[in-house]
Amino acid sequence: xxxxxxxxxxxxxxxxxxxxxxxxxxxxxxxxxxxxxxxxxxxxxxxxxxxxxxxxxxxxxxxxxxxxxxxxxxxxxxxxxxxxxxxxxxxxxxxxxxxxxxxxxxxxxxxxxxxxxxxxxxxxxxxxxxxxxxxxxxxxxxxxxxxxxxxxxxxxxxxxxxxxxxxxxxxxxxxxxxxxxxxxxxxxxxxxxxxxxxxxxxxxxxxxxxxxxxxxxxxxxxxxxxxxxxxxxxxxxxxxxxxxxxxxxxxxxxxxxxxxxxxxxxxxxxxxxxxxxx
Length: 278
Prior knowledge:
Strand content: 15-25%
Number of strands: 15
Structural class: alpha/beta
Shape: globular
Number of helices: 9
Distance between the termini: 27 Å
Strand order of the largest sheet: 3-2-1-4-5-6-9-13-14-15
Radius of gyration: 17 Å
Order of helices and strands: HEEEHEHEHEEEHEEEEHEHEHEH
């Protein structure tokens, strides 16, 4: 199966994948790792909070022909769930959805218009991957509707010049797991999902540049993979294309002008469309 998947990826070109991050019912851009479980603790560092509803962004992505973007509920509150479902209704089968997805509720999101469901925390227990829960999701919705979120952080202690070690983090990126994101993990898990979504959590929302070693490693994935974290320019997109050999798609969040940043969304669309001609 893995060899077949690799052969299918040989003709792909890099794509821009849009995002709609929702917190407390509002479309926001939040610095990675600053969102806590404690409601009485520090508030997350917010780069941007939209005045427009989630449907505004979904409709724009739809009109621009962008497929495979993700709607992520940063805390599946009733308000955030309502906003996510509205976005899915505005762009049926054009968006993936994540945040609090389980085997019990995954079908609801697909029925509401999601092309895929994205899962992380649900399939981890005690810092290890729960194979039974993963299989339960596959039984519920099918492998072809499942995106595994392997968002990760660098393990401290990497010496200069060494390849960093990345491990998956869950529960608003606060809990470390034992699962290392490497070529073997990507090969093994590719048989159990349709795509991967990987945030470089240490640079997420900072517009400080990408996690280059992570992007390069993600190019070994035998199935589609989307990288997010630190993208600030079209030069960064080009660097992802080079390091990822065209196999790694990318998301831009805080840097986009539609999210209050300096990078024109229209320039990114033009770049994306140019890639699709190759």
